[in-house]
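Quick question about two entries, pasted in order.
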Amino acid sequence: MKKALVIILAVPIFLGLWSCSNQHNLQSWAFDVVTWNHEVYKITNEAVTEIDDEIGTIKKYSTNESSELPNLFSNKYNKGTKLFKIKNVETNDYIAVQDDGLYYKAEKMEGMKISR
């Protein structure tokens, strides 16, 4: 009986300690992003229907936060996700990201550049 009680009490304590020790692996981004042409774009949930040419493809996906983001990177979309120009909209303002047959607007973030 004592063994069972020790195990019942030890398991939740062990799980709690293990959880706390692994929290450094959890990453928290303020928002979802893609990078293109050495600029950072914040993903919106606004759908876009007027699409122009394909302008790039995500080359690197990661959820690990970093102050240095590579070009053609996303913390939301997997490698291979396509980026597009929005018809009659400058890429200096917005681009589109293809996701499951839909296109979502990504807004350029002023003051955020990535290293070349």
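Here is the second entry:
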Amino acid sequence: METKIALLRGINVGGKRKILMADLKAMFLKIGFQKVETYIQSGNIIFQSAFNNSDIEKMLEKEISTEFGYEVPVIVRSAIDIKNLVKNNPYYSSEEGINNLHLTFLKVDPNPELVDAISSLSFKPDLFTIEKKEIYIFCDGKYHQSKLTNDFFEKKLKVQTTTRNWKTVLKLLELAETLH
């Protein structure tokens, strides 16, 4: 069994696509995942499973649609993946400034030509770095005021995304490391 983290896109935002975390946890347990924990209402679930990430994503998307009636994109990463992402963030140097950091998770590897095209764009003072299936983001101001949003990256890279602030990423890693 490997510790995994499922990131759901766009639930419980602005009163839309509401899913209670207790109901989500019950669904994960019903599917057969183990040691299921949720973190905040935005769809972060830590659990253990022997299935591969893409199979879990498909399974969860189907089950969420059946059980709650919503099409919800799901992106899954292992705890080891998250640990490496934290270690490799080019903008993260200390606890200072973490309010400016975000991590966008991509569902699949983007087309390299699209990555090259978007990487040449500048949104200073906001910065971004694309690394495989993640985008590290530094926002000089508030994330919701930045152009570097899920919608922007989905349109430019033609892949599904979801973003978490750096505090959430660190907390998910902490919870995953204590899930034994």
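Reply: The chain has two domains: 2-78, 81-166. The two ends are 10 Å apart (CA to CA). Hope that helps.
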